[in-house]
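Summary for the lay section of the report: proteins are chains of building blocks that fold into shapes. Here we show the chain for Membrane protein and then a coded description of the shape we predicted for it.
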Amino acid sequence: MGCTDMAGLLDRLGRFSFRRRWSVAVLWLLVLAGAVTAAVTSEGPVNTRATIPGVESQDAFDLLAERFPDTPTDSASATLVFVAPDGGSLEAPVNQAAVEAALATAADSPQVSRVVPPSAGTSISADGTTGFASVTYDVPSAEVTDESRALLEEAVEQARDDGLTAEMRGSALKSPTSMSATELIGVAIAALVLLMTFGSLVAAGLPLLTAIIGVAISFLGVWAVAGPLGMAITSGMLALMLGLAVGIDYAMFVVSRYQEERLTHDDAETAAGRAVGTAGSAVVFAGTTVVIALAGLFVVGIPSLMKMGLAAAGAVVVAVLVALTLVPALLGMFPNRARSRSQRRGTGTNPRVPVARVWMRLVQRRPLLVTVAGVAVLAAVAVPALSLQLGTPGDASLPTTATERRAYDLRAEAFGPGSNGPLTVVVDARGASDPQTAVTAVADDLAATDGVASVSTPTFNAQGDTAILTAVPTTGPTDERTEALVESLRDARPAVERDQGVSYEITGTTALDIDMAQKTQSALVPYVALVVGLAVLLLLVVFRSIWVPIKAAAGFLLSLFASIGVIVAVFQWGWAGDLLGVEQTGPVMSLMPILLVGIVFGLAMDYEVFLVSRMREAHVHGVPARQAVSTGFAQSSKVVVAAAVIMIAVFGGFAAASEPLIKMVGLGLAAAVFFDAFVVRLTLVPAVLQLLGERAWWLPRWLDRLLPNVDVEGASLAPAPGQAQPDLALSNR
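The coded shape description reads as follows.
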């Protein structure tokens, strides 16, 4: 097919933005102002309960809402655990008075709808030393005020002052997701790395400034549409995190190419146009692969995850547009100060990186050995991924300094580990002739099941046709035996329903976590296949090669499983747990692999497109294939390394957080970026291309005629009149 001349189109866009720099800058400021206005006048993110269509626990939850309309199903709650001093009884008058006084303090909040004190036989242990009380609120956890949380803390302190051991846990304690100092630390590290990379304050500041403008527009845009689309604040946070990451990367690519073009073009406008025409083409296709990865989240079938993907994809689109227009506009305001100090002094030459040159000599001398060694290392690190167990890490994974962890341990010791994650059984008895007798029979069958410690008395709705039972497992919420128990109870259901004429479904936090883990695990392979398949097709168009897209996909899978292996080794097996503050092993967060695929695939393709496009560009301009590998590597490796270091620093900061889920996300993303950037893109990619030689750029003729030629390498950009074509092989001399 004919050439679409994307490089020429983007070159003209870059020149236009350079010439009309003030108009472009004002336009982006107007967009930012519009986003601020829309966000301020909107209702903001919603606090809806996460739903997982198609799983039993969700169906049971919906049935509860239908049959028990007066009982809120998404209200916040807290559990206060009390232990009598010196092995005494909690029912002693002095201890009972202390408990009642503490609960009265917690109930002072106008948001509290119900308080259930400890009672013998249900919420007081057999030896009478330990009991727990339930505090229910009439609002979701995200709407619990700081005053209500302060009253909970005051109640616990009051009980402690009266001589009791008191701890608390529950959704009411969870504060809404908010920004932390981690992002500021990441931005500071990014500024330092950018300054070292570009050798100019202006060049270092441009990617930061444009990325911040882009993520501000994205975050405010998500905030503005969150209400109508039913988005939670987590969607905006993901858009902010990913938008900042790709925003810095994309702007870096354009600024780096601008500095390089100024070595051969005295005219700054020409250099800006060529920078957008070449590096901008890589940005467009890298951004497209990210959007593909995020759009693929729709196959998972979890609405909240799909909305997160939609928000993040919007942030990536904004980052691409900013890199193509606002970056060249700002370059037009500082055409010379955006150059490095050595370039301004007239001593700058084509970028040379001694370490990169030494590394490429090693790779070119032993490409097969390097390839085998790199694959072996990643495969070895990925071995723990075979033991991946998905779930939702709970309070048991918190450090013992947290009151939630201590409350969890006290209750598990007194009532058994399963008391921290009871199962809710919803019995639909509309088809039974005697609903109460039938429900009692169901309760007896559940109690007789191995792995069930106890079953509560049934609670019927007003119509008397639906009942709730609470089954307490003998094992903890994240124990694999609890998952087996849920499956066993569901497998035994047909016989019970046939004998009693009733149907029942199992829900509750524990069952919901189990169902989510199974749903995400079953969706992981189709999701990866869809994302990788579409990306291979896109890279096929970009690089006009059969082997380059296949190599890119294979390298990504290696780094993905290696990063999952690190997560399993640390959080499931406990390796190096002390160094990272992991006090309790447990399952990997259910959404972690999906998020790794969506986020890391996009960042990996950024590096792949920018690195390999420089190699192909050299080859298209006449450099032999193997020499083009080292040429492209020398010209792009410095920027790829800088981008990867920035991302590792940002994500690594989250790995130091105290919250287990944040720690897991931070470590997983940091490990994935490290493996993909340094092992795959900067090691395996040049080694494999060196082995393939000219075959790396082979494409069947019939396919060559079918595919559009998008000219990502800028072959159509002729040098300006009176100027020589850049010597792309200079770095090899």
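Put simply, here is one thing we learned. Residues 490 and 506 are 8 Å apart (CA to CA).
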